Amino acid sequence: MNLLLRLWRSSLGKKYVMALTGAALVVFLVGHLVGNLQVFGAPDLINQYAHFLKSKPLLLWGARLGLLATVGLHIAAAFTLLSLNRSARPVAYATGGAYAATSRSRYMAVSGSVILAFIVYHLLHFTALNPAVNGVGDFTKLTTDLHGETVPDVYAMMILGFNVWWVAAFYLIAQALLFMHLSHGLAAMFQSLGLRNHVWWPRVQLLARVVSVALFLGYASIPLGILAGIGSRYAADARARAHLAAAPSSAATVLAVGPASAGKEVVR
Amino acid sequence: MKVKLKVWRQKNRTSAGEFKTYESPELNPNMSFLEMLDVLNEQLAVRGEEPVAFDHDCREGICGTCSLVIDGKPHGPHRGVATCQTYMRSFKDGDEVVIEPFRAAAFPLVKDLVVDRQAFDRIQQAGGYISVRTGSAPDANSIPVPKEDSDLAMDAAQCIGCGACVAACKNASAMLFVAAKVGHLGLLPQGQPERYKRVKAMVEQMDTEGFGACTVTGSCEAVCPKSISLDFIARLNRDYAVALLKGDPKKAASGGA
Question: Three-state SS across B135-183?
Answer without folding.
Answer: CCCCCCCCCCCCHHHHHHHHHHHCCCCCCHHHHHCCCCECHHHHHHHHH
